[in-house]
Amino acid sequence: MRRPSTVELMLLTTIGLWSLNLTVSRYILTHGFQPLAYATVRYGLAVSVFIVLTLALEGSLRIRGRDLGLAAAAAAFLYLNQIGFVYALEKSSASVLGLVLGATPIFAALAGVLLRTEMLPPRFWAGALLSFCGVALVALGTGGELSGDLGGVLLGVMTAATWAGYSMLVTPLMRRYSATRISAVVLAWAWVGIALTAAPQLSDQDWNLGWKVWTLLVFATLGPLVVTNELWFRSLHRIGPARATLAANLQPFLASAVALVLLSESLGPLELLGGALIASGIIVARRRRVSTPPAE
Questions:
Q1: d(C-alpha 134, C-alpha 105), whole Å
Q2: Which of 33, 149, 261, 295 is 20 to 30 Å from the Cα of 83, by its Cα?
């Protein structure tokens, strides 16, 4: 029996921590933390950790001028990703959001097309259609009105798309900087936007939330954010964003299963069918070889 490779172990650890993160964050948001206040505190703690680690290990946070635009674009995508993530969890269940995030590999491949780093075969488009039909079924299963769970589904689609774009943008930076330095700089810039947007909620937040919420927040910061960022960036560097996001397609469905067990959530027939279509679309879209357009 073949032993898993280093990159496979990194991805499995990342998938496991991300799967727990949906349930943990949903619990935190339903026990007193306002969405943007939670994102601000969580990212503020993570940025502090990454800055300390980077300065201790490398002595500098410098990003060269030619890479500043790419880092800023990645930070903008991450900002949108976190806004979508916290509000999707507030409006919908962790299990539903987990299913929707299953479409992330499709968005990663589409981002590759837009950036002219990939040429996709016809089977990909068939798989993409299946996955998007699955997302539509999940949305229908939540009730059919542009509020509540359906609003959460739409925000979940935004979360999946922005994470894919973020992963594509940071990949070139990985050739020149460490994962720790990229995290310190990009997360810090994203945190500034989150904190400014969160100002009204921060002033209105009740901070007396109890030890359970604060303990889970520390876990959600150190595990699913700090550790996974390091492992995810290293995986991107080793195998590329398209393959990494494809390998991670187990995570949304594992996250849904964890939420169903730990939060006693439920999924209806349409949502389960939608999840199956999303997974089928990923399988159909999977390709052994990805070609890059010739330089012009």
A1: 14
A2: 261
Q: Which pair of tokens denotes residue 194?
A: 């989150």
Residue carrying structure tokens 């187990």:
250
Do 285 and 129 meet the contact criterion of CB atoms below 8 Å apart?
A: no
**pTM higher than 0.90, yes or no?**
no
The span from the CA of 152 to the CA of 261, in Å, is: 20
The CA distance from 128 to 106, in Å, is 6
Q: Which residue has the higher pLDDT, 235 or 55?
A: 55
User: Token pair of 254, please?
Assistant: 């594992």
Biggest CA pair distance of the chain: 59
Between CA 212 and CA 72 the distance in angstroms is 35
The percent helix, strand, coil of the chain (3-state, each to 5) is: 80, 0, 20
Residue 85 to residue 1: CA distance in whole angstroms = 38
Give the SS3 label for residue 52: helix
Give the tens place of pLDDT for each residue, 21-41.
Answer: 888 988 999 899 999 999 999
CB burial of 99-110 (b: ≥16 within 10 Å; e: otherwise) equals bbbbbbbbbbbb
